[in-house]
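for the writeup, i need someone to sanity check this before i put it in the appendix. the sequnce is what the collaborator sent (i think, or maybe the updated version? ugh). structure was predicted straight from it, no edits. if anything looks off just tell me and ill rerun, i have time this weekend
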Amino acid sequence: MEHKPFSFDIEDGKVFRSIFAAYPDALLLVNAEGTIVLANPFAVDLLGYSGDALIGLPVEALVPDAVRPRHAAYRHAYGEQPRSRPMGTQMDLVARRRDGSEVRVEIALSPLHDHGLPYVVAAIRDVGSYPRVQQALQRARYAEHLAHFGRLAVDARDTQALLAQVPAMAAEALGADAALVLLLEPDGLSFRLAAGIGLTANKFAGPNVPRDVLELATRVVTTGDSARSSPSPSCAADAGHLLAVPLSDRGRTIGALAVRCASLQRLGDDELRFLDSLASLLATLLQREKSEEALNHAQRLETVGQLTGGIAHDFNNLLTVISGNLQVLEEMPGYVAEPMAQQLLGAATRAARRGAELTGKLLAFSRRQVLQPTVIDAAALLHSLGDMLRRTLDQRIAIALDTDEALCLADPVQLESALLNIAINARDAMPQGGTLAFTCRSVPALPPELLAEATERPKSGYVAITVADTGTGMSEAVQEHAFEPFFTTKEVGRGTGLGLSTVYGFAKQSRGAIGLRSTLGVGTAITLYLPQLGDEDDIDGPETDAGGRLPPGLRVLLVEDDAEVRQVAQQFLAAMGCTVTPCANAEAAIEVLDADTAFDLLLSDISLGSGLRGTELAQHVEHRRPQLPMLLMSGFSQELADTSAGRELLQKPYTREALERAMVRVLHAAR
């Protein structure tokens, strides 16, 4: 039986036209000359045309002007060898709408030549209409708002002025009708309106905060958790859906950040995370205003991981420039004898230092830190921590201390952070109050159940620091996973699951161990085992001067991609009597080293823009010039942690004295 070749009459193809018109993507039928023969309604809507206005247009009319010549050449080449191209193989395509605007699209091409038809079907899909793309873009916008607020917080001089911007930022980001910041009065029973913005005149301008907002804020402060509410049928016409998150100060809820939206759909989990992060940043700002002590003991916020390490690196570079130039100004002859100038410069220097501390705290929970172990009086640390917790925890929680004198070797900042992590978990396990007990003992060895985990055993034994609560306790199943990253039993939005895993990592990195005992309904006890100070330990640690001052005329090759940071470093080095050769990237430094071998020290940032990193430059130098001492710098603690093995490292922002001490240690180690 003879088969006739497939043929199809466009004018008579009712089934084809029906499928073509009903297809949910934009479809164009293009002939061999590149002219649009058919367009379905979805194509008309997507490209901004009406009726049959697309019919007869060259397909190049839908291509942006900048790529139109290339597209014509591509279309001619495609016509010579037509082939199917599925959607998704080219993600960076843009279509030009009738009004000149552009839209990102994906395009699939289906030639009909095998069916005897000289046409190509182009299926076009708006990438921005993908729910996952919209969600990703929205999350990116939230992250940008947080980053912007973080930058403002670092440079802020007037805390109240910055506080006043928070409601406007929250309302803009969430598309909310109103937003406000409520802070608890000292009596803990009433609120004051710290800042607010709303669409209704005087809605949040005076002391009369709406009752539904006050009720939700009270619930947030009582539970320490976020809360939502929706308007009842009897509410006023402008009443909307409310979302409120707590503002916390060192474990104590001090207020709430609330927004009102007309649509419940605008207050989902992403919005909750954004508002929670904004509230966390705001709480950190309020802590900075209170006192230096509040900064030193600020709660490690669970949600500050929203700020990326890149932002922290930029902050630290800025702070390096600010603090470095301030130090240079302090020593200039025109300012040395001027008391007012010294007072102003001192205040600015302290502010820059606090900005550096703030940046470090923002990354404390989410980044592995470089440990700087030193000798710690564990008993004194626990007594200081107990005093702070008595002021900040729920008054229904009693603090008990039972400590022996003991000296351990650990990083004091990270040890305090670990103990605070455990204490905050204990607080959450005692919602009705209870007892939080700290004990400190010297022990000769680890318990038998922990011996297998010990990578090395200090000859002098351990200092065992136990934090015990009388809370709800853990089941055996929960205890098995308690130290696993991202494991948490808390409600969504209240915990990241990184707290105990961070404590576990700190104990292991400190050559110690961690033990856990818990009984449901009775309580939990967590014990940190840290190396005890022994006769064999070097109590001077990494800060030892190691040889005094730098030799005069030291030749330094400086590699720093940030021009202003590079200038600060040059000024510091010149003041030390060094001869400096500056380079903006690793490639330029390699050329200099190949031409001149008379350098005494390589000083390089780790992040060097788009080229080789500082670590790669260091590896090159180790291979070509193994005798050349090297000092690496970074404003991103993760970079320092990842490159810490066998190298001297300097954290940004740094002072001239810190730079000189690090250089002395490097030169001493090389000798």
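The chain has five domains: 10-127, 133-306, 309-362, 374-531, 543-670. Residues 131-155 form the longest helix (25 residues).
thx in advance!!
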